[in-house]
Amino acid sequence: MTNTNNNTPFQYYSARTKEYSAQLAKLARYFRFTAPARLLTFAGLIISGLWFIKSKFDDTFIWLSLGFLVLFVLAVIRDLQLVKKQRTLKARLKVNEDELKYLQHQFSEFDDGSDLAATAPELSGDFDLFGAGSLFQYLNRCVTDQGRTLFAHELTKGKTTTEAIIKKQESIKELSKTPKFIEHFRALGLQTNMEKDEVKRLKEWLQSPALKISALKWAGRIWPFMLTGWITLTALGFITPNLIFIPIIIPLLIVSRKNKTIQQAHNLLGRSAQTLKKHASLIQLVENQPFSSELLKSVQQQLAVKNKTASGALKELFKLLDRFDLRLNFIMGPLLNILFLFDFHMLVSLEKWKAAHKKYVPDWFEAISKLDAITGFAVFAFNNRDKTSFPEVIDTPFTYEALALKHPLLPDAECVANDISFSGQPKILIITGANMAGKSTFLRTLTVNLILGMSGAPVCARQMRFSPCDIRSSINIRDSLARHESYFYAELQRLKGIVNHVKAQPNTFVVLDEILRGTNSLDKHNGSYGLLEKLISLKAIVVIATHDLGIGELEKQYPGTAHNYCFEVELEGDQLAFDYKLKPGISQKLNASFLMTKMGLTSRI
């Protein structure tokens, strides 16, 4: 058994990978025998059957045929069991192999959530929340469509109260200590593709008007007796055998009158069987897991149903849908309708199930999506337990304190940690520095860790304290030819939106990176200075990166409110050296002219 507590994440995943690889290799050896065994028993069945006929039905060969039939059926059943086990092992192996790649900072295998960027387009564009190489791709481990949507919402909206964040933290802490449970959960989910359309159709069926099933129920009950009576009377000679087509046509005509209703139900449900099976398996796993945190226990309570389990109820529906698919078989479908009015029985059974469970199903799916959305944060906590910490959450006054703060998307070898501490409102942090010195990266580091903290996740810091707040930013602005909107006008619109939001909600963390680039230096200075004074008057919390050293004068004008920090660059021989360390004060060194001269773009230094 793999020791979760003492092993490093790399050791843990390596051991699991080795274990599943060995089991798959063992299965492969089994398959080398099961395929020939299946073929031989089938051949024996055919040959013994032919000899049975050739021997004019000798009892010896009938028993031999039955023996081969039993062996063939057992071989097929065993083969199906092994195939199922192989599929499960492959899914578990993939989960662990993907995490090993993740530990090497290779996470392109995971869904990047590009289609979810509209959840928060400005934050997403400014802080790489969605898309290739994004925070979503780095964290996401969802296996349900509803779960990934909720995860995107949690990432962009976060929790706004201390109590909600602490509850979320407790659930993530607990789940991060159960990597085997998460592995099992994800492996079950990965065996079936995302199921957005299937879930939508299932919900449509649940919300559809109830059918009047009393007539269908009685028809389904009576018809087998009528058919038996007809056959008996025919056998006794009371009905001519020439009329045998009548009990064949009658049930088919009866069923055809309800064909539209039957087909509609099958269209909505026919493809949902695998989705139901997947959710039933996930729910059963969650039902049987002992949880102690309030949020995870509430997930289990959402799955509670009187006299049965949610997983059991979904398995009932899955089995019904599996049988319902028999109507698609061009032999079994008509035959079952002729004998039993099969489609009527299925409609009655489905309507009974819907009446008993439809009010619970949305809660079941929501419960699983809640847990699914947490798994990514829990895996992040487990994989980075020596590099992250759960921050302390405080209400007032606004506080952001962090020791050894890093950006989660930067590999350790490339990342430099910084300390930061500021509190109270209003508050302005002015970050100056040379090009490529680390200003923009630091803005993103501050914000991404704040996003993680408000999601209840651990942060990339040795220690951190923060207050929940809204986040607004102006970093990556795009012009729009379609809207006849210039870069400068688009930026002004973004800044106007920020000011309006701060007016309504002063407890807002505002992040600005080199604003008003689309105008001359004096205009830019005056505009930036005026905007910051406006935000000070609105009690906002602002972090701004700028090359305009004159903005640093705000510290003198607003002592205790505005603070200057910088990233410096050193010239070592003919090379620039960056230490990426945050220092107090205004930057004193430039590098643009040096770089341009070195690249042959200018002869001036």
TrEMBL record:
GO terms for molecular function: ATP binding; ATP-dependent DNA damage sensor activity; mismatched DNA binding. SMART domains: MUTSac. GO terms for biological process: mismatch repair. SUPFAM superfamilies: DNA repair protein MutS, domain III, P-loop containing nucleoside triphosphate hydrolases. InterPro entries: DNA_mismatch_repair_MutS_C (IPR000432), DNA_mismatch_repair_MutS_sf (IPR036187), MutS (IPR045076), P-loop_NTPase (IPR027417). Keywords: ATP-binding, DNA-binding, Membrane, Nucleotide-binding, Transmembrane, Transmembrane helix. Residues 426-600 form the DNA mismatch repair proteins mutS family domain. The keyword Nucleotide-binding applies. GO terms for cellular component: cytosol. The keyword Transmembrane helix applies. The chain crosses the membrane at residues 35-54, 60-77, 222-250, 330-350. This is MutS-like protein. It comes from the Bacteria.
